[in-house]
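Task: complex structure prediction.
Instruction: return structure tokens for all chains below.
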Amino acid sequence: MRKIDIFDTTLRDGEQSAGINLNTAEKLEIARQLERLGVTVMEAGFPAASPGDQDAVRKIAGTVKNSIVTGLARCNQKDIDAAWEALRVAEQPHIHIFLATSPIHMAYKLKKTPEEVIEASVEAVKYAKKFFPLVQWSAEDGSRTEPDFLARIVTEVVKAGATTVNIPDTVGYATPQDYGAIFKFLKETVPNIDRVKLSAHCHDDLGMATANTLAAIENGADQVEGTINAIGERAGNVGLEEVAVALHIRKDHYNVETGINLKEIKRTSQLVSQLTGVAIQPNKAVTGKNAFAHESGIHQDGMLKNPNTYEIITPELIGDAHTELVLGKHSGRHAFKTRAEEMGFTLEPERLNEAFAEFKKLADRKKVITEADLLVILTDQQIQEADARIYELSGVQLSSGTANIPTATITVVRPDGETITEAATGTGSVESIFNALERIVSEKVHILDYRVSSVGKGRDALGEAVVKVLIGEDEITGRDAAQDVLEATANAYLNAINRKLVKNAQPTETVPLT
Ligand SMILES: CC(=O)SCCNC(=O)CCNC(=O)[C@H](O)C(C)(C)COP(=O)(O)OP(=O)(O)OC[C@H]1O[C@@H](n2cnc3c(N)ncnc32)[C@H](O)[C@@H]1OP(=O)(O)O
Ligand SMILES: CC(C)C(=O)C(=O)O
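Output:
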């Protein structure tokens, strides 16, 4: 069977979604899970974009061993140098450089002639080859590029030493027929095209990203790019979970394999949703919570008689086991540690003890601890070191009801160690919490978005709160999960403030080359 490489860009194009801002610890956590998922390449960021991104790419490149780690760069030496600085520690250093090739992008955005775009691309590929054995070049807006020009520039970058050539449908404009035809045309026209990997990168502006990606595969693409949960710029990228499962379920038609460990899909999706704060729509293909729910009588009748009547994918295929994890208040450290390891967490003994203490506290209040609960507890412990607790919640007291004015009394330990208590009213409990916290913190905070959802099922499920705030010019997302959703709300607000303070404390200059 032909092998299709999976190139994940959750941490780069996915993070370009409006409102997503991952810190290094969160990126590292997702990168480890992407490695378990079995992606061939993961794009960890855009090193020249900020010192934070450069640091995250460097840490991921130094940690991940079973997937190739790459970083994005424009066609200039400064970006390529920044990428090398971050990626030199990788096992197989890989860089992804791009330049737009469509008439509109060349004329209006780059203000370059087609000849200048060819020259800049060739120079950048040759410069990158001095450092990187693996050089991917992308024709940004490739699907709206004049085909003969596309074939010419691809011929030149292949000659210059590119090892992968990517033809993105940057604005999600192509139809499956258009997009497939580009791959067929390049395969037939460009000399030595079989010496490089040909890659597809689709956006979902017209809802055709999955169909376009599959059309590229049918027409010769060797690699496909996308994100988990289909996050990404504007309407998002293609969801890799959809591509991987479509190729598996319809292998009779596509006859290719990806190397993706399908059983890790559910967990990866849940982790990305948890850390980005972007909920998965219930009817989302493959990973939505209704994807395996059968509601109507005729369907249920069919399912009972033969599940194949209505179920083309089983939840087990993507690791969505329905069997609840039997860990409860009588479980001990061994069982807890073993389960944590099975879930891919190797925590320091101190962090494991703290996670175990959190688990026991929860088990006292909740009948069944689900895998979703454990994922929240263990992930929070793993990222805690970087997520400094500068303001720390000490207590929340609420008085509310239909006949009185909601009032929150909140106690917080401030960065200077002082314990401070403030009370405030609001039109509802949540607003009274935000108002009381605003009196405690010194930053001017504007709430942009607030969401609560349950983690897992059942009336005693954990409540997760996500608060997106604007502080100065920075949009920051904070989150927390607790049994009491109002406690989670106060903690999510403080988590956002703490992240802003950590961000302020980071150096702003780019890291010098050594
Ligand atoms: C399709 C994609 O997803 S492409 C990736 C998009 N991702 C991002 O932009 C996220 C990270 N970006 C950033 O942090 C910033 O945009 C930076 C640090 C890269 C650049 O910031 P600035 O120097 O302030 O430039 P700004 O973003 O305003 O403009 C982009 C410049 O890069 C040029 N440019 C755009 N693409 C390329 C390219 N592939 N190669 C070389 N130059 C390019 C533009 O023409 C413009 O140049 P100009 O300043 O001479 O007009
Ligand atoms: C940088 C390229 C690959 C990109 O993200 C796009 O064109 O959408």
